[in-house]
Amino acid sequence: MRIGVDLGGTKIEAVALDDGGAELWRRRVATPVGDYNGTLAAIADLARKAEQELSQRGTIGIGTPGAISAVTGMIKNSNSTCLIGRPLDSDLGELLHRPIRIENDANCFALSEATDGAGRDGRVVFGVILGTGVGGGIVIDKRVVGGRNCIAGEWGHNTLPWIRQDEWPGAQCYCGKFGCIETYLCGAGLARQYQSMTQRSLSATDIAAAAHNGDRAALNSLSLYRDRLARSLASIINVLDPDIIVLGGGLSNIEALYAGLGDLILKFAFTDVLHTKIVRAVHGDSSGVRGAAWLWPVGEAPAARAAAR
User: Fold this and answer.
1) What is the CATH number of domain 2-104?
2) pTM of the full structure
3) Which of 85, 213, 263, 269 has CB 3.0 to 4.6 Å from 234, enough for a Cys bridge?
4) 164 φ, ψ (degrees, to nearest 5)
């Protein structure tokens, strides 16, 4: 059995999967905001409840914003600031008496879709999150590629490719730089584009609905968003050349983004024919927590061996 935990800023969700990926158990609780020890206790309680109710011991994987520093072993780059500088994996390991695997939440999303989701038929899969932020993860042969600096897949903090004069410098990113892909392709970026055309404020979801109803500014905003998405994905294809790119996050549900997207990408990708498939995530909002569970592949279960002893 594999237990996955999605550690978010407002909620902690846990799921238990069998070896075939079937869901056995699911539960969520509110995140103890700003409380590191409370967060540890909440995760441990969820894992223990899953094991008690299913009468099985499981491996445990955690998906969370940020990453574990290769230098210090501590959490870095997390928007849940109480985690920063803390040895989350070893502290949880002591509480639960087993090894714990932790990965960035975007990596967990990519792993989920590459394992038994929309990218399951690809060897090299790039998972994209288009939502409040813009994240990414790389999976090769069903395993996450974290990178030497634990930042592989962070495409959102590269400059918007083939940027035009009227697009520069754009909004300042939370990382402190200007021109980041994230500032253009996040939900707030789409809303900002629409507002610049109309002086009206709408959410990304409302812009999509307005476009569906024929609103000219909304249609133009989505057209520009799709163009920027195509340029950004082309730069990934030029470097990684993945078999499949899986789109997830709230904005991936906007149907209009997919119309002609491949043709737009081909204008910028360094190839004569685009073989890379661009597909929508199968598991949706569940991909993060499922991917955390898959951090322990089938056949790799030290917890089970420990229980047998």
Assistant:
1) 3.30.420.40
2) 0.91
3) 269
4) -95, 160
What sign does the CA torsion over 268, 269, 275, 280 have?
A: negative
Of 204, 241, 264, 13, nearest to 125 (Cα)?
A: 241
Convert 60-125 into a string of H (helix), E (strand) and C (coil).
EEEEECCEECCCCCCEECCCCHHHECCCHHHHHHHHHCCCEEEEEHHHHHHHHHHHHCCCCCCCEE
Task: Specify the pairing of strand 11-17 against strand 244-248.
Answer: unpaired
Domain ranges of the chain: 2-104, 118-281
What distance in Å separates the CA atoms of residue 292 and residue 60, rounded to the nearest whole number? 8
pLDDT digits over 92-151, tens only? 999 999 999 999 999 999 999 999 999 999 999 999 999 988 999 999 999 999 998 889
Q: Which CATH number fits domain 118-281: 3.40.50.300, 1.10.357.10, 3.65.10.10, 3.30.420.40?
A: 3.30.420.40
